[in-house]
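Researcher: Please translate sequence to structure tokens.
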Amino acid sequence: MLVLILAYLGGVLTILSPCILPVLPFVFARADRPFARNGLPMLLGMALTFALVATLAAVGGGWAIRANQYGRIIAMVVLALLGLTLLSSHLAEWISRPFVSLGNKLSQKSDAEGDSVWSAAGLGVATGLLWAPCAGPILGLLLTGAALNGASVQTTLLLLTYAAGAATSLALALAIGGRVFALMKRSLGAGEWVRRGLGALVLVGVVMIALGLDTGVLTRVSLASTGGIEQKLIDAVRPAPPPQPAVKAGEALPVEGNLPSLAGGTQWLNTPPLTPASLRGKVVLVDFWTYSCINCIRSLPYVSAWADKYKDHGLVVIGVHAPEFAFEKEPENVIKAVNAFGIHYPVALDNDYAIWKGFNNEYWPAHYFIDTQGRIRHHHFGEGEYAQSEDVIRQLLTEAGQKNLPGGYVQPNAQGAEAAITDDGTRSPETYVGYARAENFAGGQVAHDDPWSYHAPSALTTNQWALDGRWTVRDENAMLDSANGRIVYRFRGRDLHLVLGPGSDGKAVRFRVTIDGKAPGADHGMDTDVDGNGTVTSQRLYQLVRQAHGSDERTFEITFLDPGVQAYAFTFG
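Model: Translation complete:
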């Protein structure tokens, strides 16, 4: 219920965003007519269409996006015709003749002909196809959840609730606008001029959308910023992570549930498919991870060490690879990562998040400890507390009758990105580059899905970042359209990582890194040399900075010498 309320309020706030401007002329095109037969069906059609299109775009992949593009073209033609009918009653009569038999009268020359519920609903459907709302924190959260959870009643309900919030605020605006237009008609006899003015605005709106100004220029016009309000709403309703259960020596571990089915794995590596039945009699550790997640990468040395240390004493480790980004769904990419990290235990590819849902999991990394009877006895989310986790493994093995277990705790000598995190609580937070979850961007408003020339400011404050050059920012990444584009970040931390990938053609992209305007020298990461040079050859996490002494605040800059690179997310250690 709280999430539904959050979605609704996020929709209500869209009336304040500049991205609503291009659709306002379509909304007000019938503001002088009865709301029940015109405004209401139009807004319902708009909300239903947006919810459907957003659901398909989030879970359907490229084909859904291409289909929506064709739908937008048809909608623009229809709405351009609407604008022309508003401009000229004679043209309206001529255009409407072929549609009379179908009940789609676009003419508004008389109340009797104009008050068509189906015509108004059709206008709403066309408007819903064209509407591309600014993706603030709330809509970004909904779209991310839709992509993660797939098509479902809950996904569509949340997006429909968001659209209903937008329709509510538009309905209020429509009610006010209708009264204003009625007053103008009565006092000034200006009905014809109002109609023509609306026709002109509709045509202007169509042109703006056709030129991409609705998701380009207008998203950069900060008429009202709702991001801060939306983030406060999210923080107010988002449940805190459950506390980690304490484990005391000699105390029995509680039963938290049963091992769910593993049948949803889309592919298995290093093993034939495993089942709960085949694992009976074994102590099992299930590790949810994804190969570009820095927190997962830093925990892998411990998971691998436990697998090696206790494999002859009844422990089976299963890595469940649940992708965060689209490129992590490619089996070839995961296979490369498994080999690069030296993972020899079974790995299930969970591209449909079936195993993830079976555990009701929400975190990367997440560790679930299962006893020989298939019961979940303990869990741990995130990094750290490795000694406690190993104590749980030893306790479950002891319960299973294992004796003479090897002593001590694993101490993996991890290097590079796998090295343990520092205890600096002031290090910069994980920062996404795509607009769906981007925060602390200092380069103005972001043009959604359209090429745009960005200019980084001369100075940044702590944790701010900016793009420079011509980029196309999409929901989960930013793609460089021309050479010598830059990303600048004012960060704090020992390590700086950036998830990167080459363009769709797979060509390597050269880059150069500087720290405070100079070559990194001894502070270079494992994927750069002392001069800051490196190359993006595959889609993965790149360690670009490892400060040799401390974790001071620095200004990081990366310049890509070739176009096509895709940047996803910064992480710090």
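Researcher: Any highlights?
Model: Confidence is low (pLDDT under 50) at residues 60-68, 99-114, 214-225.
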